[in-house]
Amino acid sequence: MNHNSLLFRRKSVAQLQKDSETSSLKRTLTAFDLTMLGIGAIIGTGIFVLTGEAAAGTPDALGAGPAITISFVITGLACGFAALCYAEFASMIPISGSAYTYAYASFGEIIAWIIGWDLILEYAIGNVAVAIGWSGYFKSFLSGLGVHFPPYLMASTGTELVQLSNGEWQPLTDILKSQLGSQVNMMPHEVSILNLPALIITFVVTVLLIIGIKESARTNSVLVIIKLLLVGLFLYFGIPHFNPSEHWQNFAPNGWHGIMTGAALVFFAYIGFDAVSTTAEETKNPQRNLPIGMIAALIVCTILYIAVAAVLTGMVPLDVLANEKPISAALDAVGENKVAFIISLGITLTMPTVLLVMQMGQIRIFYSMSRDGLLPKKFSRVSKRFRTPAYSTVVVGLLVGLLAGFMDIGAVAELTNIGTLFAFVLVAIGVWILRVQQPDRVRKFQVPAYKFVCSGAIIVCSYLMLSLPLITWLRFVIWMSVGLVVYFIYSRKHSVLNEAIEKLE
């Protein structure tokens, strides 16, 4: 057998069905659980943290301004196309592993490895961004109680902190420099050594995920209901301060380029439904419930995102939003300090749902790749007591916790986005390929007008990828290059399919 055919060997339908039937994971999740998991993952860092930076801009990227609302419409459309493609695959291949498993069935092993390695980046770095964002709100919550955490334990390593006249410590960003000019050098400075809250919350989520999927889902559902109430509370108190005649005068300050850059940045907000698809082997009737969960979560969240982005940018000037807690900052700026405190408290309690769902997705990717022999077998070990992949859970928890303690949120959010967009493009291509090559295969859910929908997902997601900064592309290329080295040194040789071929020979 030639090397090319080995690289593109596929998992058959029979093999995938056997994996599903012999899975030692516990099937407990319903359509409601999946919808709540999707909402829990989608409504979080994107709406509570990144909306402000995407509107105001970052040192590496232009902001969309109030036109961030259009950015959310574009990303919602792209995700809608991608969700339909994911739903068709989930109804055909109800196996843990999400786009990795789908690629193994439609493209072959080398592409499956690339997408699996890409998903490791997406979920691990996404988790890091969530943990860092949560830490910012936790700091705001403590400040509201009059408790001041040591500043050098509240931000990423090496971040230079400046003490403002009100006693608060803030990272020394370009925006802060432009506001205060030479006064910055006269203020007290301190350099952070660790983001301790981000490390702690990752540890708590890791313990919950080891205990069990159903317990994690129940905790998530309760916190999601609180989260939806928080969004409603913000809109109720924010709308009276909505003043588009003042704050929307320059609706798109950086034009179409700013809108698309904003869309690429906030795309991070939507990756929750992708994580839902990794729970296929723990879902009751996955062919029916997975498509319902993904699509329902996406519709609810897109509507809420557009509403929050519109009110937020219509309340205050853009420079107020350029931080890791834009909703609290906007409410403080218009005098709604008590509501800002309540929302900071609520976000502090509920944002870990995003971390929970995305970390769960990361663990299931490890589990699936390990079961296929592409990663060491330890990652697919299932705890006899909890019936969860405990080893993978601990390793992922340690990795995310350490990175969250030392990285910057802007860099990790952009890196997660490019990984997600790449996965969406491959899934859309995969649906098209299987429709042509295997038209008679049973599909309990079919993408309507699949040529149009798949083309839409491919074009919009590719365009959003091109809108990301060059440094993000460089980091992504380096990561994928490392992945190919790992594949040819270890995974290709240890693949379960390779072992089967060697036996035949």
Describe the structure.
By secondary structure, the protein is mainly alpha-helical. It has one domain: Up-down Bundle (Amino acid/polyamine transporter I). The protein is built from 22 helices and 3 strands. The chain has helices spanning 3-7, 13-21, 31-42, 45-56, 68-92, 99-106, 109-144, 174-180, 196-211, 213-238, 244-247, 255-266, 272-276, 286-315, 326-333, 337-350, 352-371, 390-406, 409-437, 450-466, 470-494, 496-504, and strands at 160-163, 169-171, 189-191. A 3-stranded antiparallel sheet has the order 2-1-3, with no helix packed on it. The longest helix has 36 residues, at 109-144. It is globular. It starts with a helix and ends with a helix.
- Got a strand count? 3
Strand content: under 5%
Question: What would you give as the CATH superfamily?
Answer: Amino acid/polyamine transporter I
Distance from N terminus to C terminus (CA atoms, Å) equals 10 Å
Strand order in the sheet with the most strands: 2-1-3
Mean residue pLDDT: 78
Assign the CATH class.
Mainly Alpha
Structural class based on helices, strands and sheet pairing: mainly alpha
- Biggest beta sheet attributes: 3 strands, antiparallel
Count of spatially separate domains:
1
Unreliable residue stretches: 172-178, 180-191
**CATH fold annotation:** Amino acid/polyamine transporter I
Descriptive terms for the model:
single chain; 505 residues; mainly alpha; Amino acid/polyamine transporter I; three-stranded antiparallel sheet; 22 helices; globular
